[in-house]
Amino acid sequence: MAFGSKDYPPVSAAKKTPRIVPLDGEVLRQDLFALGQRIAAKDELRKEALLVIKGAFQNARARVKDQVVTGRLHGQEAARQLSAIQDAVIQVLYDFAVKAFFPRSKKNASEHLTVVATGGYGRGELAPGSDVDLLFIRPNKPTEWDERVIEFILYMLWDLGLKVGHATRSLPECVRLAKQDVTICTAILEARYLWGDLGLYDQLRKVFWSEVATGSGQEFVEAKLAEREERHRLQGESRFLVEPNIKEGKGGLRDLQTLFWIGKYLYHVYDAAELVKYNVFTKDEFETFRKAEAFLWDVRVRLHYLMGRAEERLSFDAQPGVASAMGYTSENPREAVENFMRAYFLVAKDVGGLTRIFCKALEVQNRKKTRHSLARIMPGFMRLRTNDDDFFVESGRINARPDIFKKDPVNLLRIYHMADTKGIPVHPDALRTITRSLDLIDDKLRADPEANKLFLECLSSKNDPEKALKRMNESGVLGRFVPEFGRIVALMQFNMYHHYTVDEHLIRAVGNVAKIEHGGMQDDHPIAHDIMKRIAKRQVLYCALLLHDIAKGLPGDHSKIGAEIARHCCLRWGLSEDDTATVCWLVEHHLVMSDTAQRRDIADPKTVRDFVEMVQSPEYLRMLLVLTVADIRAVGPGVWNGWKGQLLRELFYEAESLISGGDQTRSHSARVEDAKAALEQQLGDMPQEERERQISRHYDTYWLTIDTEAHVRHARMMTEADAKGELLALDAVSNAFRAVTEITVYTPDHPGLFAQVTGAMAAAGGSIVDAKVFTTSDGFALDIFSVQDADGGPFGDATRVERLKQTILKIVRGETVPRALFAKRPAKTRASAFNVPSRVNFDNEASNAATVVEVRGRDRVGFLYDVSTALFESGLSISSAMIATYGERVVDVFYVRDGYGHKIIHPDRLKAIEEILLRAVEGKLNE
Fold first, then answer.
1. Which of 299, 332, 364 corresponds to the end of one domain?
2. pLDDT tens profile 331-362
3. Which residue stretches belong to region Uridylyltransferase (predicted)?
4. Do β-strands 877-886 and 889-897 pair in parallel, antiparallel, or remain unpaired?
5. Are residues 51 and 184 in the same domain?
6. If DSSP states are collapsed to H, E and C, what string results for 302-370?
7. Looking at the structure, do residues 597 and 550 belong to the same domain, yes or no?
8. Rounded average pLDDT over 1-22
9. Does residue 51 sit in the same domain as residue 80?
10. Is the domain of 657 the same as that of 671?
11. How far apart are CA 545 and CA 558, in angstroms?
12. Does residue 715 contact residue 675 with C-beta atoms inside 8 Å?
């Protein structure tokens, strides 16, 4: 039977007809009809038909892409056109299968089939790289006819290069599975008729609403919200992640879709605009919904086209391209990206606001369970509303009379203070009134003593200051009351180190110090927890945490400018001059402790003396430690580790001791003798001659830098290696708390050894975070490296350490070179999205014995090897090294001396070293 073009359902039979059909299904049918008339062999007909369909399909999609790329079509309309193209292809394929290949039997009434779109495709929106989700519905049991038709359609779609998610079910199976599985229930909720038996689709809708949805609204709501919470947990718990997932992340498209699914399920609406008449959204809120959806779709479609695949994460390497495609341009490309991402985060913030209003409206309407037992939480506050109440409890939330904010704008702060004190949220009606009352927050309110008192108590609350600040920030109150904070709301820093926007980072930092104070982080930060009890003015510390990055994004040093801003804020909030001065000092110096700990050799006495000279006060030292811990923890997951904690603890104890006149005041020689005596006592089982040899072969620096436990371990390793005549010995000790493996290398010293070892470690996948280099009096090198793996954890299990030892041996013997091994490791592609200036700085004041060289550049495999090779080729010896990576940026610090053991002072020599180091940083050492 030839394939005809007349015996098929009219397009008007579909439940939803797109406004634009970029692919004309009628023309395609006519083309296939002509093929059917000309070609009798089924295999050949299918092959030729596929070529015709593919050509029409690809041309139609290419036209959509061209319109998007040239700016003539926005993302959401493109998604609708792509869906319409897909509709036309599936409709034609169905008819082609039924007419040309598998005609129905007039005797078999069970040969009926309906093709239904589900998922995003069911909403009539299809991203360029998305899967095509289909549900094939049959009346009851499967027949040979429907199996063949389904198989034909699927194979043709696969041959078109599409990813197809599909299911085949009878009507009873659809009902049964929808009752059991919320995902299937949601798929049927979104089901859209494509082609086939329209009556079968109508039956599906009827039984779904009568047998599945009726009476199960609250269960569906709870299941979808639980699903959302799990999705947020997996994606990172924040809508302000700097590499957001625009589909699944918090504040992304899936959150908007969840709201619509719930609304559709509860109120049987087919358009989100209909939610207004059910008092779920106001007209303004729906307009926010519509704009947010359109923006996110625009980003998603352009991201798919840019990456050439279904990529949903707005990664650093994609952000510049998407920003440009969205029209964000600037002479400074980094500024364009940050402006685009700020627009994205403001939309994500709007989505969060809509979600809160929606969920709270459901609770008010008893569609969603509340989480609080108010009689327990608010004794004495549960009273009936009277006409005299400004604030009252309604449906488990604090509500307010609509006129009280205009009557007294201080109530805009008072309601959040009350919510924090009582531990319950703000009612959606009150939130709506608050957002419409933001203009009431003016200079007069900002200067009001009562308003500032309430704000300061929320900021330093002993309940949950992070939640209080987030509530104020999400409604816009925080940014209006503290305009300095409003400037950095949704501000992104285009780098790999910071995981959150600036406002999110600051609020999380406040939350961290509260957790430290309450004991929530006691296992990770026992010292900081104990120190918090000794801090006299905790309110000062909380203010400093909120303001420490307040000047980010402004030209100049954000620490110094931030201190100036902090002074104005603190005086306005009611702090005394002395307390304000302390906040300003902490803001200006908030990086000094982490920089000193991670970029300077704490074992060098001058490092600690210089640090103490800056800090001076024991109270400043205590507050600075807690601030530094809270700040680093708020940068993002995985940034904090035990190694950083160890460095901070060592610096704190050394500084505290010096400030109080403790161990630092003892003579140099006395400390060396104490260390030697402690080792000798621990080596009592070793022959006297060997014991004396191990003690006599080290210089003073070794005794002052390393603790007794390490001295013992090294002495036994060296003794064993010497006895066996080994030319290379390795010792590896992992420390889970410090999150490092300490690898000690013992071998005859020779020029370039440090570079060879660092090259071997890089080739083995290790990341060096600290290095100490010692040479014994009899010519052996004892180099100690603190190494982490790619995930920031300890490097060594026995297998990896043995593999590392063999790699070092091959390099030392000249059997291989590190660069040949680097080629086998994947390049760090994420870092390549950033332009990191290469810099070399020399400091001859930081140490009495060595020149401190600080090298900065973009991270890559082999960076440390190239830099240490350059130092070797410059004739310098390395006594210690601190290696720090901040996302895409590396900051390596080396304590070096020349061949005579002196500092490098001559300007020409420093200039020559700088030039070779800059070539090394940029990977051009051999050019």
1. 364
2. 777 888 888 988 998 898 888 888 877 876 67
3. 1-386
4. antiparallel
5. yes
6. HHHHHHCCCCCECCCCCHHHHHHHCCCCCCCHHHHHHHHHHHHHHHHHHHHHHHHHHHHHHHHCCCCCC
7. yes
8. 40
9. yes
10. no
11. 14
12. no
Per-residue model confidence (pLDDT) at position 11: 31
Alpha helices (runs of H) in 70-111, residue ranges in sequence order:
75-96
Banded model confidence at residue 3, pLDDT cuts 50, 70, 90: very low
* C-alpha span between 45 and 33 (Å, rounded): 11
Q: Which residue has the tokens 């501000």?
A: 491
Same domain, 720 and 787: yes
Within a domain: 395 = no
Instruction: Report the alpha-carbon distance of residue 816 to residue 554 in Å, rounded.
Output: 49
Structure tokens at 261: 């699914």
- What average pLDDT score do residues 362-367 get? 62
Q: Where are the beta strands (DSSP E) in 691-766?
A: 729-735, 740-748
pLDDT tens per residue, range 695-738? 999 888 788 777 888 899 999 999 999 999 988 888 888 877 66
Q: Measuring CA to CA, how many Å separate 818 from each of 607, 612, 757? A: 33, 41, 9
CA–CA distance, 712 with 715 (Å, rounded to integer): 5
Question: What's the distance, Cα to Cα, between the start and end of the chain in Å?
Answer: 72
Q: How many domains does the chain have?
A: 5
What CATH number is associated with residue 634? 1.10.3210
Contact 81/41 with Cβ under 8 angstroms?
no
DSSP three-state, residue 774: strand
Same domain, 312 and 345: yes
pLDDT mean over 135-157: 90
DSSP 8-class letter at 8: S
Answer with the residue of higher pLDDT: 586 or 397.
586
Residues 6+ apart with CB under 8 A from 127: 79, 82, 120, 300, 301, 304, 310
Query: Which one of 320, 336, 364 terminates a domain?
Result: 364
Report pLDDT for 779: 87
- If asked whether residues 268 and 284 sit together in one domain, one would say yes
How many CA within 13 A on the CB side of residue 582?
A: 24
pLDDT tens, position by position, 294-330: 999 999 999 999 999 999 888 888 888 999 999 988 8
* Helix, strand, coil share of the chain (percent; to 5): 55, 10, 30
Contact present, 405 and 476 (Cβ < 8 Å): no
Which residue is associated with the tokens 């369970």? 369
Alpha carbons 86 and 127: distance in angstroms, whole number: 11
47 token code pair: 């092959």
Distance CA 212, CA 593 (A): 60
Residue 926 predicted with pLDDT over 80: no
pLDDT tens across 612-657, in order? Answer: 999 988 999 999 999 999 999 988 776 777 778 878 888 898 888 8
Q: Are residues 842 and 898 in the same domain?
A: yes
